[in-house]
Specification:
- It is a single chain.
- Helices cover 46% and strands 12% of the residues.
- By secondary structure, the chain is α+β, with helices and mostly antiparallel strands.
- The protein has two domains: 108 residues, 2-Layer Sandwich (Phosphorylase Kinase, domain 1), CATH 3.30.200; 242 residues, Alpha-Beta Complex (Aminoglycoside 3'-phosphotransferase, Chain: A, domain 2).
- Strand 1 and strand 2 form a beta hairpin.
- Helix 3 packs parallel to helix 8.
């Protein structure tokens, strides 16, 4: 889409949300894999906003997402009225979203004067991110999860996802399976361990909670001066889930020594210092609600999510790259190999990962 067309589209969307001031400029925010996000600047008065165009191929019922977000953010605001909170703007008819004539789905969020991190080598940043996501669990521990829509059914049902993956392998609709036999075999050999969390939940050994389900550290906004977390953002996938999934997704993203799409696999491993930092923040904040059985699944959650996400990237690759945003040929395959390499390293360090979790919990409890 041409820049002039994007500019005109953003101007019209801003008018529908009755934003103050005069449109000035915009910039594309590139770190998301699914939605299209812009930071948009206005003048007279000088303000900035986050505009998002939702990927309705991924999120088939975006209105449900916005209803979930309203419920969750209101609950958090009521419990912590003196802390920063997300705010979505509304159109004249009172909706916090906009369907345009060409069937695009838009929303506009308050922009915070903050800093975010894609990757960090500072354990303290990870500790604060862990604190933010642990507090998110704590704040919603008394929220009735049955009020939430399941925005993506079976999102972290790894067992079911694996079944679908191997069905797609058999179909091989795009003729790409022959390129990735090694990766498929890794996933097949780890099928049992990747299914364990789902089986523990199904047997009632670990509880469902309200979970974020996209706990990358770039979904935490930090105070520029103090380094303290301000707010957790990107609540599209808030729904019932497992605490270990939130913990694990954060770890596999933030404690990886390389970017999510690193091509040089020799750079990919789990940094135990970063892992410890995040663990101390998350477990310390969420300790009042976490059961012993849940603590036992934290490290397993990291391994599970690394395998699951590697499988999801590979599934997208062999079915035509329709889900995740790709920026170069074979991007999903690069992501796959990175996640599976990380999972292999986690396996080697699993005993130490578990030890850090229980060492942290013991200090709190």
């Amino acid at each position: 889409m041409r820049e002039a067309d994007v500019l005109n589209e953003l101007i019209e969307v801003g008018k529908e949300f009755r934003l103050e001031g005069e449109f000035d400029s915009f910039e594309l925010i590139t770190h998301g894999n699914i939605n299209t996000t812009y930071r948009v600047f206005y003048k007279n008065p000088d303000k900035s906003y986050i505009f998002q165009k939702i990927n309705t191929y991924v999120f088939r019922e975006p209105v449900n997402i916005m209803q979930n977000i309203d419920l969750v953010t209101e609950h958090i605001r009521q419990k912590t009225p003196d802390t920063p909170a997300l705010h979505y703007h509304h159109t004249e008819d009172g909706k916090n979203y906009l369907f345009t004539g060409d069937k695009k789905f838009w929303r506009i969020m308050k922009d915070f004067d903050s800093v975010t991190y894609q990757i960090t080598s500072d354990p303290e940043v990870l500790r604060q991110a862990g604190k933010a996501f642990g507090n998110f669990q704590l704040q919603l521990s008394d929220f009735d999860a049955t009020l939430l829509h399941e925005t993506i059914p079976n999102f972290h049902n790894t067992k079911k996802r694996l079944e679908g993956f191997f069905e797609n392998v058999e179909k091989d609709e795009y003729g790409r399976v022959k390129e990735v036999e090694k990766e498929i075999e890794f996933i097949r050999s780890h099928r049992d361990i990747a299914s364990r969390l789902t089986e523990l939940f199904e047997s009632g050994k670990i509880p469902a909670r309200v979970t974020h389900n996209d706990t990358k550290i770039n979904n935490v906004l930090f105070n520029k001066e103090t380094g303290e977390p301000l707010v957790v953002i990107d609540l599209d996938t808030v729904m019932p889930g497992l605490a270990a999934h939130d913990f694990g997704d954060a770890v596999r993203f933030a404690a990886n020594t390389a970017a999510e799409d690193e091509k040089d696999l020799s750079k990919v491993s789990l940094d135990l210092d970063l892992y410890r930092g995040f663990t101390e923040g998350f477990v310390s904040a969420a300790a009042p609600i976490l059961t012993e059985a849940e603590l036992e699944t934290m490290a397993l959650g990291a391994l599970t999510i690394a395998i699951e996400l590697g499988m999801r990237f590979l599934d997208d690759y062999i079915t035509g790259d329709k889900y995740f945003t790709t920026r170069f040929e074979g991007h999903n395959l690069v992501r796959t190999r990175c996640q599976l390499t990380l999972a292999a390293d986690m396996e080697k360090k699993m005993d130490e990962m578990n030890r850090i979790v229980f060492e942290t919990a013991k200090k709190i409890k």
